[in-house]
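Worked example

This section walks through a single chain of length 284. The input is the sequence exactly as stored; nothing has been trimmed or padded.
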Amino acid sequence: MSTSPTSSAAASQSAAGSVAAGGGAGRARGLSSNIWVPLVFVLVGLAVWEVLVRVTGVRPQVLPAPSQVARSGWAQRDILGTHALATLQVTLIGFALSLVCAWLIAIAIDFSPTLKRGLTPLLVASQTIPVVAIAPLMIIWFGFGLLPKTLVVALVTFFPISIGLIEGFARTDREASNLLRSMGASKWREFWMVRLPSAMPEFFTALRIGITYAVTGAIFAEYVGAKKGLGIYMSVQKNAFRTDLVLAAVVVTAVISVLLYLSTYLIERAVIPWHIKERKAERA
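Given that input, the structure is written out below as tokens.
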């Protein structure tokens, strides 16, 4: 029994449609799982927390119930919003400064083996200095303005970004580099066409690590000394034994961190869409 070309084409299109539909359904299920599973864990944890506080009768100054934290935070939403914007400003400015420094250092190291041998150990050594020691010094040297807090954020975050870029440049495909060199390409052209694109996946991984450190650095710098920001807000409320408001500020901090973290995926999708497709293909 023979099959006509038309029916074969129709069958092929139907099969392709089924595969595409199956892939779309799989992606939808994966996205739903990524959202709902953590949300269920959070809701269960909050429910257990609420029940334990009510059953044990612990004082609100020690551990308030989640419902009280939500009520107190909502009552001070305007004040919390003002402090959150101040923290976000410090985070973004400090992180932008960190990005500029990290890119300059990584590119310089990539072009100079001597700088790589000399600067890489110093970069590692810089991370042995605790933030708890740096932040008060920055406040002493530069006062309570914007500068010391942004410097703390930059110092906390430039290391993972610079190391991510250095390692990304080092993992460049040697065959592609040799091919460009054999064609007479300059080192800058080789860097632009081969080394830079190959380093971008490593960069965005480091970017996600750095952006979470940036929020933590901003909070800590404000906690040591500031006029506005979630750090100083938590310090004031802690001294007033308002644990519910301290926890409300912690929730706002967590929301800011998660949103900034997720934004890196949107930027990655816009900058290197080819890497997103490769990663999806590997997971399929």
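What to look for: The two ends are 36 Å apart (CA to CA).
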